[in-house]
Amino acid sequence: MSQINLQSKICERIKSLKAYHVDTCSTEIKLHANENSHPLDSRLMKQLQARLVDLPLNRYPDPDCAGLKQILANRLNVKVDQLMIGNGSDELIQILIQIFCDPGDALAVPDPTFAMYNIIAKGMGVRPVPFPLDEHWDLKAEPFLESIRDQSVRIIFFSYPNNPTGNCFSAEELQKVIEVFDGIVVLDEAYYDFARTSFIDQLDNHNNLIILRSLSKIGLAGLRVGYGVAAPEIIREVDKIRLPYNSNMLSQVFSEMVLSEFSLVEEQIDKIIDERRHMQEALQDITGVTPFHSDANFILFRTLCESRTIFDELAKRGILVRDLSAHPRLKNCLRVTVGTSEENSQFLKELKAIVQAS
After folding, report:
1. Cystine design at 339: which of 37, 71, 98, 171 (Cβ 3.0–4.6 Å)?
2. What superfamily does domain 10-41+264-357 belong to in CATH?
């Protein structure tokens, strides 16, 4: 029987990390994870059920995701050899850092932003260089570029729209960064469908630009499908190190079906955008609550009272949101996903009652 000191064997850079925390309270209304609260259209579910019977699940999936890539290429007006598929866009983030950074190199990100950029980088021995966003959660290219000069930054990640602030950064300022930075610029457009603004048409002009997107936010979170668009030269490097069969058969087949019937999903996206507008207006009318503009499927808001109190009280009433107050720039801030009309109304009703009682 062997009992060794396991802690002595673990890399120091891993010991210092904290796991990405996801609240898993058992609540009826879940508005914490930026998922699509609407169930998939029953017609799509019936198509999946019909296909399941014939899927050879005893065989490996297509390692190249050829069918899914072809549909994406047609939708995006890009070539198949410009596409990469990941087990969620998180996997692609990890692969890109692995390709472009050696241990000791640096990665630049705005602050605050999606936590996984920093977590993945630190886990690979890459140093995150944060740049503080201004009071409007935006940035200017010149001071940003100046702040990372001589920092050995090899790659920059911009969440566009930004998570958790919800806004799109100035397109003009991002354009300057892409044109000036002598390295890789990744625009993580996971929430593209709710912002409908993109830099994908810049790919032919800038071979240092990579676009990431996800199917998780529009209704397929359970399938974990992310994809990226980049120069074929970059895709070839991705294929060298991505794990074989990194996209399973069900994810590929069902994603192809949903993308082929995308009008059914777009109807839900339109509803979410309409509900987002309604929620922002309603939050502005609650005394003690300050919502920030959002281009995504969630809204960041700040409260005068302790955000943890709001979080706990909402959870007691069956509503789960995200408390972001651990970040120094997000004191008393919470993030709420735009859900169904009924979920949003219940959330607003309970939030108002909690704030008024505080």
Report:
1. 37
2. Aspartate Aminotransferase, domain 1 (3.90.1150.10)
